[in-house]
Input
Amino acid sequence: MAASISSALLLLLNMAGALLSPRAPPAPASTGADDGGDVDFFFFPFLVLYKSGRVERFMGTDTVPANTDPVTGVASNDVVIDAGGGLAVRLYMPNLANCTAVRRAGKLPVVVFYHGGGFVTESAFSPTYQRYLNALVSKAGVLAVSVEYHLAPEHPLPAGYDDAWVALLWVLKNARSGPEPWLSRHADSTRLFLVGDSAGGNIAHNTAMRAGRDGLPGGATIRGIALLDPFFWGKRPVPSETRDPEVRRGRNRTWSFVCAGRYGIDDPVINPVAMASEEWRRLGCARVLVTVAGLDTLSARGRAYVEALRSSGWGGEVELYETAGENHVYFLVKPDCEKAAKEMEAVAAFINSDQVITASTMDA
Output
């Protein structure tokens, strides 16, 4: 099976949802590893963990170098922010000559981006996210920092959450006075946004929750978070969510796999819908955008997230943007389609407007 995310394989993932039930794995490829092919866990369609500890990934492993995109003029650059911990980011800078976004004193809004991939695959350096970030940075006129967080099962959660937090603190430090020139010269840290798709949406939410609990240095605040087809789950179905016991057991098992059993299926990190109102009110941002795709099996959780936040007494503004007739993260699979373009416009408007965008539903 090819290592890159092909459209066909992504479509298979999208049609079934973000975290699918384990099922019989394919025959292991001959790698010379002396593990006999004994499978410990198969996380369809992402990877196999063998009993030897070897991990074989089937998708999301291709990377591309940082460059200047010939279509958008967006430049990218890779920076290692913690050599000892192996944490790196990819920065994106729009072509300032063509940047039409509103700017303050020559500075740009900052987006910290967390990629999806079920917590177990994909990369800030993948062609899929390189293309998406080039488009977002060009459309919104932002400076973006895409985080290469550690993946499960080699680094089970909370490793990804901790990496997300370290990267956010690094961004704020460099926006103030750090050595990274793109951030120190061009970042407007008063317009800070966290954005993530699928598992990355979960990470963005949990990072904002930590910011609300622990605070950010220098009195910094997060202006908003955009959760794109975010991954949340829970023991009890929310309205319109599948009640199929096999599907639900499978999701429970895969969640336990990515966090090595540290968090239960109703822990707030995976099931914020179950949080008490006082917990919701600690969400450390002023605005929230949640996008869902109508055919996505995770869409019910996204809607429930919006309703729970609205009813909690949290003092910010939250909006739901729903695209009918599409599957999970369709905008990565079909980035040039009309619906993907309109959703990109909605995300850019959310970042650049002082007003929350009007909720929108695309026709099937």
